[in-house]
Amino acid sequence: MRPAFLSGVAPMRVTVRIDAESPGPAVPDDFAGLGFERGPLNPGNHGVAGYLFRPDNDSLVTLFRNLGLRNLRLGGGSVDNMFPAGADGDFTGIDNLFGFARAAGVRIIYTLRMHNPSTNPIRDLESVDAQVAGHIWRHHRDNLASFAIGNEPDWHAFHTYAGHPNDPAIYEEISGVPGSAYSSYLARWRTLAAVVTNAAPGAPLSGPDTGAYGPITWTPSPDAGVAWTQRFAGDERAGGRITDVTQHLYVGGDPGKTTAAQAISNMLSAEWVNGTEVGTQPAQTTYTPYPWFFSSHLAAVAAAGQPYRLTESNDYLGGVPGASNAFASALWALDYLHWWAAHGAAGVNFHNKQWLYTDTIVPDPAPNGARYMTTPKGYGIKAFNQGSAGQCRPVAIDNADGVNLTAYCVGAASEDYVTVINKTHGAQAADADVTIIPRGVGRPSAQLMTLTSEPPGDPAQASATFGGATITGDTTWNGTWTALAESRPGIGLSVKAATAAVVRIRYQG
Predict the structure, then answer these.
(1) What does the mean pLDDT of the chain come to?
(2) pTM of the predicted model, to two decimals?
(3) CA–CA gap between residue 222 and residue 65 (Å, rounded)
């Protein structure tokens, strides 16, 4: 019997036309990044020998460079419940972090503590944040992307409200309505921001790193609630010190009892990409589709010309074994990065809390010392980085058979990259015969790199290749382009079920 992912369904015909007249947003070179918690600034964190981030961690440096990662966020909930690194005058963890950044070619979003509950408070938190920010700015500013202050301040548990003493500086004016804490939060944020910029004059800031999605956390307005992120962006727009407005998104939320098969189906579903309302899927999990999230939280920010970044994101909170760490995650991550790039995001940081199923980089289980490896998700990031130099270009997709497929284009004057992602799998698996209609600016030649599982076509596999090569922390990645034969009326290729293709088109004459 043939496995389901090698079903005999006839290939579907799809045409992808590049729009030459309507260039979209440029893709920043640090678009794809990772995020880690505060813990790695301590030695021995989660079983690591010494410091995770240090310039001589050759395996991790090589992985970051091979994957094309250019942005690293140090943040997460632990920032607001751990003693701040450097507060005792020992900056070893911070200096190692920025030494790693120089070696790996990344810039750091460094999150300073904000939360200061009345029980066990940090004494003189303002001075602590100023001391840390001043040290980083004096010694490491070339590798600093921005300072962030606090993590997910919109959550109910962050606030003081009736019967819940917490941080007295951030309180709900209407008990039980998290959005009503916004005004006191903004006042506190501005106090700490002034302290930070006084210690680090000219340093860029980002925020608010919000984490909730629903209307309960929106702030009241005369007509309706306004998302906390949008309110912050508007209030800080005139200040000119915010480089990125920041928000978090875990698309599938808490997975509950979702099985690997269900999670794979959800992650590769058209609903996540196209849905305009929050919905439910098997196992009664709630998912937050990209279009709804964009329109309700970030569209107004983008329309105002303010850069925004998803600084903490992933498929599920904590992940689903056999899905979040399987090849499905590579196809999901590739699609997710392109979707947000096309919608004007400044970047996406996949959260890499040690050590969860959603992680991109994990310890190598092989007995070869303190080495690190990438999960399949890293292959999706690599495929994005390989095909995202330039400006996003809209594409028109002729898909009469309704194959579960997405396509994106990023290009420059004499070159386009078209990424086609075939998300069919299992009983619905179908190869796609794709014709790309290039721009009419010269004689095109085309080359291909394929992102595939090993063996091909199975999104549940734990291994992958891109450009015919694996990605390790030991040697330079050596993926290669394969020439595509000329065809008429466009560029023809077959994109197998549960695979993705990156096509480089060069125009001559």
Answers:
(1) 94
(2) 0.96
(3) 49
